[in-house]
Amino acid sequence: MPTLTSGLFFVGRASPARPAAIAHREDDGTFALTLRVVDNQGPRAVEPYLVRWRGHEAEAWWSTHGPLKAGDALQLELVNPRAHAGLRMPEIHAQVRTCRLLPPRSFTPSAAGASPAAPAPLRVPAAMSARA
Asked: Exposure check for the chain: N or C terminus, fewer CB within 10 A?
């Protein structure tokens, strides 16, 4: 039985030597999508993943959602995650079973459940304003 893991992952930063997303055809003609993503578990707790998705479903998803940018949020279900030596730290390699691009995060008050109205102005007590 394969090991499964799922959760919220973020597309990693790209560099010239290590792009965040690579879409290509393999020798047998199968579409393959390789993504560098991170599992952000908190301050100083970021795990890098290299995930690969092959086939028609991956190709259809990429044609709809690609290209991705650093920080894009993905809901992933991964098969057989395994730790491998990375350039600076170990990274986890896995196969993608399902992938869903999540909407961009919003930091507006309405997104946090607060009232969409503008914040109330700071009120200075009358006693303090009289001294000025």
From this structure: N
**Hey, how many other C-beta atoms are within 10 angstroms of the C-beta on 109?**
13
Asked whether the predicted pLDDT for residue 109 surpasses 60, the reply is: no
Cα distance between residue 108 and residue 95, in whole Å:
35
Q: Answer whether residue 28 is part of any domain.
A: yes
Distance CA 67, CA 44 (A): 28
Q: Each residue of 19-37: b (16+ CB within 10 Å) or e?
A: ebbebeeeeeeebbbbbbb
Strands, E, within 1-132: which ranges?
4-11, 21-25, 31-40, 46-54, 73-84, 91-101
Domain that holds residue 88: 4-105
Residue 51 DSSP symbol:
E
Q: Does 132 map to a domain?
A: no
CA distance 51 to 21: 10
Reduce the DSSP state of residue 130 to 3 states and report it: helix
Tell me the CATH number at 32. Answer: 2.40.50.140
